[in-house]
Design goal:
Layout lengths: L2 E12 L13 E11 L4 E8 L4 H16 L7 H11 L8 H21 L3 H5 L6 E8 L4 H14 L4 E5 L6 H15 L4 E5 L6 H11 L6 E3 L7 H10 L4 E2 L6 H4 L1 H5 L5 E2 L7 H14 L3 E2 L5 H8 L8 E3 L17 E2 L13 H7 L3
């Protein structure tokens, strides 16, 4: 399991359905893929999805600060490698590019270890859950009110009992309330509706609009304020009879410490790009200690491994961003995921996908 080589590549592929966050619709998705090959021939794979550029920057960080530290190390030293990279790049990192570079390596290392053991990660870590519910994400605000409802209704027709729509940014508070009312009327009372603000409000705006939302029986209000505004999160959570959730933009459990020290959020949404699988497992454990559940941000085909192995996994976020990339896609059936039993994370890119979309 000695690391012999680490290869990276930049993929740029068209979207299956582009995320319509606003007036400008992105044409292509950018992926960073890392492969770690051991002397015995085992290859572990990790990947990131970067929505606003940065693949070349993260690759440069890998080339300069990460890969030279790993050649010749034992790929099973996953915790030791995580700590070494964290400490080595602490002065220049702690968040951002260095942690993203560390995360893609961490995902690949766990994949390699699972393959070496002949076990899927959820078995290697200790299996806990056979079925994990999912919600249909991607009712983008750029679709407009009717378009968001149409996308939600398609999810419901596929068997999802929960969907997520966006508010803020393109709409004022009056239109946001009308949009939510329209969604509730269209879906009826049995479908859970999540609201994602994408850090678009101040705490005052969130409280004022959130009070109007309460009559529509919403499941949660996500990222109402910028990620640094921990006091704002607390103010909103105390003022509303509505779950306030967040965490996708925070890096590692250290950045989330105020959420644990002053518990107001019942659900955390960590992102695997901001600490890797090693860190997400620790976040889940700390969250469980404080009675909090986990609903990871994106990457459902990978996050199903985490959620099948922890006691406090709540729900997965399904969006079809990567369904066309895999040899064996991991997809929800009737709005429910089951973790695959293939070794490692069980994901492999189609050769034709790699060939067609790798930038030269």
């Amino acid at each position: 399991m000695i690391i012999k080589e680490i290869r990276t590549r930049h993929l740029r592929a068209p979207w299956i359905e582009p995320p319509v966050f606003g007036a400008v619709v992105p044409e292509m998705r950018d992926l960073l893929v890392a492969e770690i090959e051991t002397e015995s021939g085992i290859v572990g794979m990790g990947y990131l999805i970067l929505l606003r550029g940065g693949v070349s920057t993260v690759r440069a960080c890998l080339d300069e600060l990460v890969i030279p530290e790993l050649i010749g190390r034992d790929a099973t030293d996953i915790e030791g490698i995580w700590q070494h990279l964290w400490e080595a790049n602490y002065w220049i990192g702690r968040m951002g590019v260095t942690v993203m570079a560390q995360s893609v390596i961490d995902i690949a290392l766990w994949d390699a270890l699972g393959k070496r053991a002949g076990l899927p990660l959820h078995r290697l870590w200790g299996h806990c859950n056979d079925a994990i519910p999912a919600y249909g994400s991607g009712c983008w605000r750029g679709y407009g009110p009717e378009g968001m409802v149409d996308r939600a209704e398609r999810y419901v027709a596929q068997g999802f009992t929960s969907i997520k729509m966006q508010c803020g940014h393109l709409f004022d508070r009056h239109q946001d309330v009308r949009n939510v009312a329209m969604m509730r009327e269209a879906l009826g009372s049995e479908i859970d509706i999540m609201i994602d603000v994408n850090m678009g409000w101040t705490a005052d705006q969130a409280i004022i609009t959130g009070r109007r939302f309460q009559e529509y029986d919403l499941y949660w209000l996500e990222e109402p304020v910028v990620c640094e505004d921990f006091a704002g999160y607390a103010r909103i959570a105390e003022a509303l009879d509505l779950r306030v959730v967040g965490g996708e933009t925070h890096f590692t459990r250290f950045d989330m410490r105020p959420f644990f020290e002053h518990s107001r959020l019942p659900i955390l949404q960590p992102d695997v790009m901001r600490g890797g699988l090693t860190e997400l497992r620790k976040i889940a454990t700390v969250a469980d200690t404080h009675g909090m559940t986990i609903a990871p941000h994106l990457f459902p085909e990978l996050m199903v491994q985490l959620m099948a192995s922890i006691p406090n996994g709540l729900i997965l976020e399904y969006v079809n961003w990567m369904d066309d990339a895999w040899v064996d896609p991991v997809l929800p059936v009737g709005g429910v995921y089951t973790a695959p039993e293939r070794p490692g994370h069980g994901l492999a890119f189609k050769e034709e996908f790699l060939k067609e979309f790798t930038l030269k």
